[in-house]
């Protein structure tokens, strides 16, 4: 596949910024145009089959992430879903968070009346989680699968072991910086809840996301509402309690349809290719950045890493990278570089040339 043909933005710049926003494929934009053309021509008749349309997306998500279809919920983004989730939990829960994690994870917990503490986001993240569990005894662990500032990726085998050793620990993950980078089996993972926005590595544009849960999670949520009968109106008669909570109101078929198209697009490319490309670029970039003294110890000392990096960069270097038309993001104390499958070794070398000339 010619990625520059599918992603016209790649003709205009070196795009190393998927951690900020994924880019839109030409074929998906053409589908979006066709969708809105139908809406324009049909008016309200266009929405007659919207329930089947959205259920079809749930089926695609369930297949894509190896989840149960009945446990897939469509949400506008991670933040709305996570806040809704927290509002359904008892305030007696004790949360273990990760320092410097995405504010949409930590702040909603901190600002409610939960008890919480932190594990350190460093080269010993997994061990610190274990140590903190022993001393703090949390009932919930909430964290990003990949840290948004520096790309630290949690060890998935560790999550499985953790769940086996602490079956009552509710493990909630933000997959926004992970979903779309490799094949992932939710049912076999140690996660109880996976929530993700679709606009980064899923390449699904804005205004869509999803939540996957395990069966037992129903027992944690909105227990006080179970004493109230559900709405009797015909258009809501098939809605479950959690559907009313997480999928309230009208869902936009343009945004959620785009997510389905992105799933089909990623499946066409294939995760064998995507994962190998990301692993190759990640290993090459980590070695190159390490050789130049641009990475922190916490990244260098971890055996595996995502394709997101935070490199040391002063204002002069940042300006030179911008002038070279290389798109990145400033996050935290460093410059965030992120490689996706549509990037290649030549683009890494282009970045390194600018760095070496600084």
From TrEMBL:
One of its GO terms (molecular function) is lyase activity. Signal peptide: none annotated. Keywords: Lyase, Pyridoxal phosphate. Transmembrane segments: none annotated. It comes from the Bacteria. Residues 47-351 form the Aminotransferase class V domain. This is Selenocysteine lyase/cysteine desulfurase. The lineage of its organism: Bacteria, Pseudomonadati, Bacteroidota, Sphingobacteriia, Sphingobacteriales.
């Amino acid at each position: 596949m010619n990625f520059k043909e599918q992603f016209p933005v790649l003709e205009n710049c070196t795009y190393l910024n998927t951690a900020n926003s994924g880019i839109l494929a030409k074929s998906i934009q053409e589908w979006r145009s066709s969708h809105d053309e139908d809406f324009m021509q049909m008016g309200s008749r266009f929405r007659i089959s919207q329930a089947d349309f959205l259920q079809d997306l749930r089926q695609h998500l369930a297949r894509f992430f190896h989840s149960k279809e009945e446990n897939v919920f469509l949400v506008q983004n991670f933040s709305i879903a996570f806040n809704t989730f927290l509002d359904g939990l008892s305030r007696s829960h004790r949360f273990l968070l990760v320092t410097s994690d995405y504010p949409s994870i930590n702040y909603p917990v901190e600002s409610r009346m939960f008890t919480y503490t932190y594990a350190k986001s460093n080269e010993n993240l997994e061990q610190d989680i274990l140590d903190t569990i022993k001393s703090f005894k949390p009932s919930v662990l909430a964290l990003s699968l990949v840290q948004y500032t520096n790309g630290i990726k949690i060890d998935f085998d560790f999550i499985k072991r953790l769940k086996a050793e602490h079956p009552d620990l509710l493990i909630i993950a933000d997959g926004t910086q992970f979903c779309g980078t490799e094949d992932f089996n939710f049912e076999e993972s140690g996660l109880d809840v996976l929530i993700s926005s679709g606009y980064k590595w899923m390449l699904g544009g804005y205004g869509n996301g999803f939540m996957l849960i395990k069966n037992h999670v129903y027992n944690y949520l909105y227990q006080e509402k179970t004493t109230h009968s559900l709405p009797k109106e015909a258009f809501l008669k098939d809605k479950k309690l959690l559907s009313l909570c997480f999928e309230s109101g009208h869902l936009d078929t343009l945004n959620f349809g785009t997510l389905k198209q992105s799933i089909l697009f990623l499946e066409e490319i294939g995760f064998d290719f995507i994962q190998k490309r990301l692993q190759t670029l990640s290993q090459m970039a980590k070695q190159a950045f390490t050789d130049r003294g641009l990475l922190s110890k916490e990244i260098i000392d971890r055996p595996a890493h995502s394709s997101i990096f935070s490199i040391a960069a002063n204002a002069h270097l940042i300006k030179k990278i911008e002038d070279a038309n290389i798109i990145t993001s400033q996050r935290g104390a460093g410059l965030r570089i992120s490689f996706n499958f549509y990037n290649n070794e030549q683009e890494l070398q282009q970045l390194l040339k600018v760095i070496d000339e600084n």
